[in-house]
Amino acid sequence: MILVVTANPALDVTYTVPALIPGAMSRVSSVHRRAGGKGINVARVLHALGAPTLALAPCGGADGRLVGADLAAAGLPHELSTIAGPTRRTVTILSAADGTVTLVNEPGPVVSACEWDAVVSAVRRRVSRSSVLVCAGSLPPGVPADGYAELIDLARRAGVPAVLDTSGAALLAGIAAGPALVKPNAEELRAVTGTADPLTGALAMRALGARTVFVSLGAEGMLAVTDGAAWRAGVPRRLRGNTTGAGDAAVAGAALELAARSPWPEVLRSAVSVSSASVLGAYAGDVDLDHHRREHGAVIVEEIHAARVDV
């Protein structure tokens, strides 16, 4: 079972408007609501791929109940701990005129020390029986920057590989706990390491404690750096579509192969393939399974030969 923790879940609301004009009123032509947050998106993709998965998250208020109801309707196994504050909303505004997407994310409710302890306890109870632990998304107000680091430490002690996908102080603290895999995008990598070069930044992250680093490069694919080796992967042709959940899908693809204890090039191939297939989905957490199965073998994985990788 792959255990997925979403510290700051959300009710994702997508508004489609004919055209989004700043300063003007926009009439909504359609509304879509579903459980979201990076970790829940990861769990949703894993579930679609057929992987045994359990989503853990703290939820509260009416929107928290809607998150639970949506997960139940999707058949996605979950365990939601109750908090006093209301679960946040993330709003996506899609302009039908030109396809542009505008995101508005609430910060989330304050989670008390006692409420966070409930999440930690849930991980402690289950991690030794899990194949992989995934920690994804931002930390809500009230949870210290080392919140994910505490969970990663539990996984490390149990001999379970942990995957971390977050940003800022939570990313920096989490790296120090020694996760098996960290997946920043180029902006997150630069913010933590101070370098814009993906390879140099990935090596810096390894020096800080991450065992393997996958750097999302957008349409250019993904870079992987581990002990003494590095690879770059991409798809033969670029796809047009919804890229909102592509990074979350990449984490799901990687976790799937980590659970199978596959070699790193195959973990990377799966991350890129599933990420690419998610672009064809309507919403974050959707994945085109036919595309994934058809194009998985077409993902190009090339080893990078560079002396710098050996440091």
Describe the model.
The chain is an alpha/beta fold and 311 residues long. It has a single domain, classed as UDP-N-acetylmuramoyl-L-alanine:D-glutamate ligase (3-Layer(aba) Sandwich), CATH 3.40.1190.20. The protein is 36% helix and 24% strand. It has 10 helices and 14 strands. It has helices at 38-48, 61-73, 113-126, 147-157, 168-176, 186-193, 198-208, 246-259, 264-278, 289-295, and strands spanning 2-6, 10-17, 30-36, 53-59, 78-82, 88-95, 101-105, 132-136, 162-165, 181-182, 213-216, 222-226, 229-234, 300-303. The strands form 3 sheets. Strands 5-4-1-8-9-10 form a 6-stranded parallel β-sheet, with helices on both faces. A 4-stranded mixed β-sheet has the order 3-2-6-7. Helix 1 packs across helix 8 (246-259) and helix 8 (246-259) runs antiparallel to helix 9. The longest helix is centred in the C-terminal third of the chain and has 15 residues, at 264-278. It is globular. The model has no long low-confidence stretch (mean pLDDT 93).
Strand order of the largest sheet: 5-4-1-8-9-10
- Spans with pLDDT under 50 lasting ≥5 residues? none
Number of helical segments? 10
Highest CATH level, the class: Alpha Beta
Gap from first CA to last CA: 34 Å
Roughly what percent helix? 25-40%
Estimated share of beta-strand residues: 15-25%
Largest sheet: 6 strands, parallel
What is the number of beta strands? Answer: 14
At the third CATH level, what is the topology name?
Answer: UDP-N-acetylmuramoyl-L-alanine:D-glutamate ligase
The name of the CATH superfamily reads Ribokinase
Q: What sequence of helices (H) and strands (E) makes up the elements?
A: EEEHEHEEEHEHEHEHHEEEHHHE
| CATH architecture designation | 3-Layer(aba) Sandwich
How many distinct folded domains? 1
Keywords: ATP-binding, Kinase, Nucleotide-binding, Transferase
Domain Carbohydrate kinase PfkB: 12-283
InterPro entries: Carboh/pur_kinase_PfkB_CS (IPR002173), PfkB_dom (IPR011611), Ribokinase-like (IPR029056), Tagatose/fructose_Pkinase (IPR017583)
Protein name: Hexose kinase, 1-phosphofructokinase family
